């Protein structure tokens, strides 16, 4: 039973205010298994290939129903309600646009560029629509989520933020993260009740500092090694004229190795940062103004799981991917929770579906998938 | 009053749009499917066809939605499956039955890998050929015109070669172009200053060839060598290499996107990078094909088929380009190309004898 770990309400009352013990939180759990998901996964891929990609929309529905349905809070799972047809229509539109865009970009570059810019203007609107779709097709205890964000907020969070972060070489990344978490966290609804979050910039920067240090230190080390090796090899070929073939070969291997190393450093820094920001933003969030949310991922463990998952997936040519996906879902769920203030049964019996969230979903299409 | 059948499954019932659940069970009553609470009272009910029963995914709880919007949820998947089978609705669970952990999945893995390889080896090249065949000639023309315009604006400058020099090159060029598949009218030769591109020659898909002053200077008085290089560029046009490359890259990206949702973003990146490496290998084989075309065209025109080889030798000595072929290069290594050219000349001569 997923109630395990909760304390009787009386003991909570005895505590003074301040940071409550983690045991007060109802944690999510994940009940799926790698072997069970393996079947869903391989049938998804096989049917997608056989149907020339059309099944991929239904594949997404089955995958999400599996992961949402096995995400358990207080003994009940989440549900994913999207239909294959809706997702297929959205994908066909995106696909048609990409074809037209690439064709014009190749054959009439200037018109293509114009089309790209035009698209860029629509991105915030599409992101807001996509988030709303994702929220509305998700339910817990028969009540749907909803998303009230508009294009303006999406523009700030997903266009201005990343651009600003890139222009300042990552120094303003925490600001961008704060915008995007606030955009999502403050616009998410469950039934008629709202979520809200206001992650402190200072805390995000504390988490950012570690990633920045890893990035700078890592790149310095790689740069130093590259410098050392090239001067070493250079010295060798100056003396001996025959070494050209060998040095060419080793130079190529070194370039490839350096490339992989730099990517790995960026990957690790991004994973650590992502986990840190998630912790800050979720732990600063509340539901209905009272119930606090929690995320306490260990940044090291999270990064380790992500990296080993990646390696295992590559080494087994993808066959262990289902196991890896389940492993990650389990870890993330078990480090996500919510602390209900008051009687849980009473809280949920007061939550009703907001009228607009149902029905409207059927007019909607998925659009771009950004996910939470 | 009809009596209730035995409970089909037990679970929880939610009124429409409410998060408040009631412990309930599913049963049949007089041909209708109903949800009853613990005391036997009917909470919801309807004829089976108007009830929506979610399909089975693993052990995820089943959702049964009644026309009034209320929902019955149960974890007893097998019981629901048995009930549906009893109603002759066996086929609804077919995808789930395929997905169950079973030795059959090994066959699915094998089939997936086999299909993937077949698509890459046969379907993709076939699709590229079909796309090339159905591309109207106006497409490469527009493409080339806009590329030349863009390059003229950004990289290339006006040629500073004197008329006599140009005349000699054009004359040699006409001899080989006249013998090519598209004929002399199929090609236009443009002289430009290469700027950052340096000594270079390239072909646009509609038969527009561009030759830089720097390459002409590098060749010195050896006009035949330049003609050999131009014959190589004609080879690219005749084999429609640029169109093929565009379609191939697009097709490969589409293939990766097809399975992308299920392999994780890291693995997807690796696939995309791998696709890039494969595209390079394709580019190397295209270069070799164009080299060979140069040899054959020069022979037909009664010129020295080794002219292109001389050009590569010149590159080796003057620019010290001794690069080996590697999986990271767009062109084969220069020494290797010279050797291949010598081989083709030998073979072509033997054929003529």
UniProtKB/TrEMBL annotation, chain A:
Task: Tell me the superkingdom of the source.
Answer: Bacteria
Give me the segments passing through the membrane: 38-59, 80-101, 107-127, 147-172, 208-237, 249-273, 300-320
Question: Which keywords, in A-to-Z order, does the entry hold?
Answer: Membrane, Transmembrane, Transmembrane helix
Full protein name: DUF898 family protein
* Species: Sinorhizobium medicae
Automatic annotation (TrEMBL), chain B:
GO MF terms on file?
metal ion binding; metalloendopeptidase activity
- Which InterPro entries does its entry note? DUF7092 (IPR055518), Mito/Outer_Membr_Metalloprot (IPR051156), Peptidase_M48 (IPR001915)
Biological process per Gene Ontology, one example term? proteolysis involved in protein catabolic process
Ranges where the DUF7092 domain occurs: 9-85
The alphabetical list of record keywords is: Hydrolase, Membrane, Metal-binding, Metalloprotease, Protease, Transmembrane, Transmembrane helix, Zinc
Question: What's any one GO cellular component for it?
Answer: membrane
Instruction: Name the source's superkingdom.
Output: Bacteria
Write down how the cofactor binds this protein.
Binds 1 zinc ion per subunit.
- Report domain Peptidase M48 positions: 165-344
- Say yes or no: keyword DNA repair present: no
> What is its cofactor?
Zn(2+)
Q: Membrane-spanning residues where? A: 105-123
- What is the name of this protein? Peptidase M48 Ste24p
Specify the species.
Answer: Sinorhizobium medicae
